[in-house]
Amino acid sequence: MSDTQEIKLERKLKPINVWSLALGSIIGWGAFVMPGTTFLPKAGTLGTLIGMSIGALIMITIAMNYGYMVQKFPVAGGEYTFANKCFGRRHAYICGWFLSLSYLAIVPLNATALGLVSRKLLGGLLEVGYLYSVAGWDIYAGEIALASFALILFGLLSIKGISVAGWLQTVMALSLVASVFILVIGALLNPDVKLSNLEPVYPEGKEPFAAIIAIVAVAPWAFVGFDSIPQAAEEFNFSPKKANGIMIIAILFGAFVYVAINTITAAVAPWEDFMAQGYDWPTGEAVEFIMGKAGLIFLGIALVCAVLSGIIGFYMATSRLLYSMAREHALPDWFGKIDQKSKTPKNAIFFIMIISLTAPWFGREVLGWVVDMSSIGAAIGYGYTCLSTCRTLKNNPQDKRPVLRLLSVLGAVFSFIFVILLIIPGMPSYLAFESRICLIIWIALGVLFYVWSGRQGFNKNSSV
Prior knowledge:
The protein is mostly helical and 464 residues long. The chain is 72% helix and 2% strand. The chain is built from 17 helices and two strands. The protein has helices at 3-6, 15-26, 30-72, 79-87, 89-121, 141-160, 162-189, 208-216, 219-222, 228-231, 243-267, 271-275, 282-327, 346-358, 363-395, 402-423, 433-456, and strands at residues 130-134, 137-140. Strands 1-2 form a two-stranded antiparallel sheet. A hairpin with a 2-residue loop joins strand 1 (130-134) and strand 2 (137-140). Helix 2 crosses helix 11 and helix 5 (89-121) crosses helix 17. The longest helix has 46 residues, at 282-327. The protein is globular and about 60 Å long. The chain starts with a helix and ends in an 8-residue tail after the last helix.
């Protein structure tokens, strides 16, 4: 027998670990910079609140489908497994190919964000050893060293065992939430923070509908990570029925963090006047105004915890996806090898580490092109899960779930709309030219690898 048959993943994840895994994956660096770059300029305060709330409701609609499918197939692989069971290996391969990049790209994105934390909070302490620039982004040896250290450290910790990774994830997720709550309380207690500063609730000259849609359009990217829960289903030490509630709570907490940080940024002064000052990082300026250096410390804790928990979360999600694909022979069996001692897919984790270690050398701008393009992978994963729910309900007439059947259709429609928003010119989140080139390259590579793997016999039918 193969290693994937002899050795199994261990069931050690508690509900709090799984919630932390999802929240830590949802909230990353973007939650702390998007108020100044996206949320306020495009939607204002009320537009962001409504748009993010709608986005969260859409994600909860989709999450209900995940909850049902996890109960039916409580094994690693998530969307890939669902598509394979319901639509066969070709559809599963399409889903897995796009989703793997969607997950994988976020690992180095979070690691390179540590350099940004240094630039924002430590005065560019790590901007030493200038090497070159790529697409206008300066590459420094100091920042590469920090990102590489984090990638290696958390990669090795992820190999060491799911219980270690789960414990670390829980500590960081709780620290993240606690820090954000402290910042909110600090804002509420500061007499200079006024509700009137939140006006105008929409940017001047922007129609409310357009403002709200601009935020809804980023929902697949903003909430990607809740779907890491199904990837870990094989390692739950509790009933899969609880996964549904855990995902919903994680999405709600994620929405709270996004809205809270955006509101804090806007509330220190009339926000359009504040934004007109041209601050490099409006959120940092706002927090320092509210709580002084102590506020920056809590903001720094939240930032670092968000970044590091994202690294751990997507190491886990990506490795379990690759492991599942190898177990189904869509990838070489090497990716499915389980470590005898730690019971983790160590080869898949090593692969993610090696690929991620190359990313800091290209800079954040290039990595951003790949991440933007890979958002399509998340939408495709959502769509396949919702369609799989619809088919599974049809094949199991004893599961009389009319509301879920409606949600599966709605979820599939939302997923299709998310893809359209990314690939149709003129849409709010239409991919940049560079991201479209990356998408074409990734599709071409997927076709070539599918043909090659078919000749090697890797993508033959198999069962979980």
